[in-house]
Amino acid sequence: MNLPAFDDGTPAQATVDLDAISGNVRALRGHAPSSDLMAVVKADGYGHGLVPAARAALAGGATWLGVATVAEALALRAAVGPGEARVLVWLLTPGAPFADLVRADVDVTVAAPWALDEVVAGARAAGVPARVHLKVDTGLSRGGVAAGDLPDVARRAAAFEASGELRVVGVFSHLACADEPGHPSIARQAAAFEAALEVTGAAGLRPEVRHLANSAATITLPELHYDLVRTGISVYGFAPSPALGVPGDYGLRPAMTFRSRLANVKQVAAGEGVSYGHLYTTSQDTTVGLVPVGYGDGVPRHASGGSAGPGGPVAVGQGPGARVLRVAGRVCMDQFVLDLGPGAGEHAGDVVTLFGSSDGVAHADVPNAQDWADAAGTISYEIVTRLGARVPRVYVSEGDVLQ
Question: What local confidence, expressed as pLDDT, does residue 191 receive?
Fold first, then answer.
C-alpha cells in the first residue's frame, strides 16, 4: 500500500487500507470454508471506521455484520441494507428501543429472560416479527442465558414463534479461552453449547445459524465452526494473541498505519532527564525528537519508556533505512519524546510510524499494534480501538470499496 502524504499541518494520521480488510476476510473464509462469516465491526470497526470497515468486509465475502450497541446497529443498517448483509446486535439493556431495531430489520439478541418479553413488545409495536438469536452462557459467566433458565426461555420463545411474534434464527455463545490452545475450558464450553442446542431443539426451535467460534476458534478450531463464525480482531489483520503467531501465519495483514511527524528536534546534554518524572535520562550528549501525539490521541501511557518499561516502538525514517526507536520517558497527553541518538539527521516535519502493516519488529522495520500492546501490557485490540477522534482516518483502496 502506498501511504498518502499528510502535508496540511496535521500532526498525525491513521491510514486504513480497506483492501487489507477485504483480504483478511477472504483469508478467514479460507479457514472456515463451510461456514458463513460475520465481520464484527463494533467500537467503530475496532477504531477503523464502522461503515468503511463493514463495506470492506462485505467486499471480502462476509455475509453478516456484528455490533454491540443499538446506536451501532441502527447506524450500520442505515448504510447497509437488509439485502446486503444481516446485522446482529448483542449488548442490550432494559428499555432499549426494540421496536426501532425490529423495524430496521436488525437481528436482536436475547441474552437474559427479561429480553424475551421486551423484544416481543417491540415486535408488536413494529408490526413485524422480530429476528432473534438466543445467547446462552456456556462458561464465560458474562452475557447469556444461564443454563438453569434456558429451558423456560426456549419454551417461551417457541410459543412466541408459534404465535408469529418472533423467529429464533440463531443460537450462540462465546468462548473464554479460545486464544489459549488446549485450554480445558474450550472442551467444557463446546459440550455446554451442544447441551444448550439439545435444550432449544427439544423446545421445537430450529435456528438457521448456530455460532460459537470467535477469531481464535475460526483459525484453530474447525470443529467449532458450526454454521457461522464471528471474526473480530482478525478482520483487521491480527492473530487473536501472540501465542497463536503473527498475522502472516494466517494470511492476515494489519489494516491500519498510524503515523505522526517530528514537531521538534534538538540537542540535549548527557545526564538530562526526559519528560515527566525523569523516567529516562540521557546516557550521552544526544538528539531528541518530539512526537506530537499522546494518550489524548490513544497512545497508551503504559507504553512509556525508561524505568517505566521498554517503551513503545516507533519507526524513524522510511523503507530499508528506517530504524526502530523506543519512547524515551513518560508518554504525555499530547506528546512523547524519542532519543534519536548523537549526530541524528532527522528534522522537524520528518514522518515517524508508530505502527503499520507488518508482522512486527521481530520481522520488519515497522512496528505493528501488537508491538505496542506488548510494551503497554495489553492486547492489540485495545491499541487500535483506543485511537482517538482527533487522529483523522484516511481510507485507501485500489478497488471499488470506497465507491
Answer: 98
Give the three-state DSSP class for 233: helix
Q: pLDDT for 8-65, tens place per residue?
A: 788 999 999 999 999 999 999 999 999 999 999 999 999 999 999 999 999 999 999 9
Write phi, then psi, for 67 (nearest 5 degrees): -140, 165
Judge whether 313 and 339 are in contact, CB under 8 Å: no
Is residue 226 part of the annotated active site? The answer reads no
Q: Which residues, at least 6 apart from 267, have a Cβ–Cβ distance to it below 8 Å?
A: 285, 286, 287
* Spatial separation of the C-alpha atoms in residues 257 and 369, rounded to whole Å: 9
Q: Taking Cα atoms as reference points, which of 357, 378, 354 lies closest to residue 246?
A: 357
Report the alpha-carbon distance of residue 2 to residue 9 in Å, rounded.
Answer: 20
Cβ neighbours for 156, distance < 8 A, ≥ 6 positions apart: 116
By DSSP bridging, strand 86-89 and strand 64-67 are parallel
What percentage of the chain has pLDDT greater than the value 70?
99
Distance separating alpha carbons of residues 389 and 50, to the nearest angstrom: 13
| Three-class SS state of 166 | strand
- Residue 259: name the closest of 346, 349, 347, 330 by CA: 349
Of 226, 250, 276, 395, which one is the catalytic site residue?
Answer: 276
Task: Give me the pLDDT at residue 399, please.
Answer: 78
Q: Catalytic pick from 42, 226, 250, 280?
A: 42
The pTM assigned to this predicted structure is 0.96
Helix (H), strand (E) at residue 197: helix 184-202
| β partners of residue 395 | 16
Torsional sign, CA 35, 36, 39, 42: negative
Q: How many Å separate Cα 67 from the centre of its chain?
A: 11
Rounded to 5 degrees, φ, ψ at 17 are: -90, 100
- pLDDT of amino acid 403: 54
**Active-site residue flag, 135:** no
List pLDDT tens digits, range 97-131.
999 999 999 999 999 999 999 999 999 999 999 99
